[in-house]
Predict the 3D structure of the following.
Amino acid sequence: MQAAVKISQLHKQFGNLTALSEVDFEIPKGSFFGLLGPNGAGKSTLINIIAGLVRASSGSVSVMGYDVVRNWRQARQCLGVVPQELVVDPFFTVSEMLRLQAGYFGCKSSAWIEELLEILNLSDKANTNLQELSGGMKRRVLIAQALVHKPDVVVLDEPTAGVDVELRQVLWKFIKQLHENGHTIVLTTHYLEEAEALCEKLAIIDNGKLVALDTKAALLARASDRFLCISLNNSDISNLPSLIKAKVESFIDDQLVLRLHKTQDEIGSILEGLLAANIRFSDLHIKEASLEDVFLSLTGKEKA
Ligand SMILES: Nc1ncnc2c1ncn2[C@@H]1O[C@H](COP(=O)(O)OP(=O)(O)OP(=O)(O)O)[C@@H](O)[C@H]1O
Ligand SMILES: [Mg+2]
């Protein structure tokens, strides 16, 4: 199957700084794909190269089979990018900008523009100058702008940064619908719960290098630990058996969290240890490792 986006041996140098190095992977057609990485990892640089806004130092990228440099016109027609930066043209109203963009792609249908304005709750701002919009409203316009030509591949670079709860929900419902209709979705976000809930496959970039490429299930399965969370009846754990003490991840407000190895059956002996030390508890549950835990271990960062 042809990839929606094919990234081959991509390298990007900004002066002495290597922003991307030997990045090589494919984003499958029709997938909901997550692109994760810490600040400065190279995500936006990669997206800007896909969008044809930044030239790669070496390597190549194609969108739906079209090289983004040699066949840039066709590649751009297949692609809609919601940029991370909120840059808008101050000389146009919302409606003018969307019509202009649609015209650029040769789209005549104004019904779709009306629908986009409606879905993104922008109808009453249609005749407002872009400069007069709030940050969240500008974000909505950039989303609409990326979708005017109904592109096969939709790339969203941190679309929910600084966005209110309502738009976040509206946006996810809409994006899920686009995905169900066959569009490929590529999402960059620092909200890892969001990525965990939405993405089927993920790439993790760190320091310009690809450090993981896998399905969500396989990434989650990489975590070797899980957590036993115990609500204690009081905050005295001075006589905690040393076997249990060695497993303490955190102890805040009578909530004791122990880090357990996934493959070892330790819960019985922990409970026996607590009872023997006369430490009483009112509740306990297991928390499986999240995408955040896997992300932190892969990027070498510790949990705050
Ligand atoms: N135009 C540029 N000139 C010089 N350096 C740049 C330029 N654009 C990006 N960089 C550098 O390239 C590296 C990657 O930046 P990039 O914006 O791709 O990171 P990111 O993963 O999108 O980070 P964030 O999560 O903060 O958005 C950073 O070190 C950044 O300072
Ligand atoms: Mg970025």
